[in-house]
Design brief:
Layout: E1 11-17, E2 22-27, E3 32-36, H1 37-42, H2 47-50, E4 68-74, E5 78-83, E6 92-93, H3 94-102, H4 104-117
Antiparallel strand pairs: 1-2, 2-3, 4-5, 5-6
Amino acid sequence: MSGLDAKTPIPTEITLHKKSRMLELSFDDGSHCQLPAEFLRVYSPSAEVRGHGPGQETLQTGKRNVEITDLEPVGNYAVQPTFSDGHNTGIYSWDLLYHLGANHEELWADYLERLEKADASRDIDSTTLPPKAAGGCGKH
């Protein structure tokens, strides 16, 4: 999880738009962002997504239609969403949400590039597919 920085703006308003699958945030520095549920899910700060150290990240696939079904406050420093795919272990601190909002376009482009390099899809969860055969037709 991202550490809390005293200089990071604090949300003044958080609105979950279920139909559009967007989390809308306004911060006390006047900034505003809308973060899609899919984006938040693939950038979850959970160990399931980020691993326990550099290089242990797991590319999230098949999350195009994921929704936020619940959003719970965590103290005065974060929120914890529950996603429609059952994922609910990510705690999104204010500084992480601010970072995701400020860098949304760059992070999204990076995610799409990583998907392409992995020959993965936003529509198909490749973690549930059988491994590809290492050549040949796959029949023995």
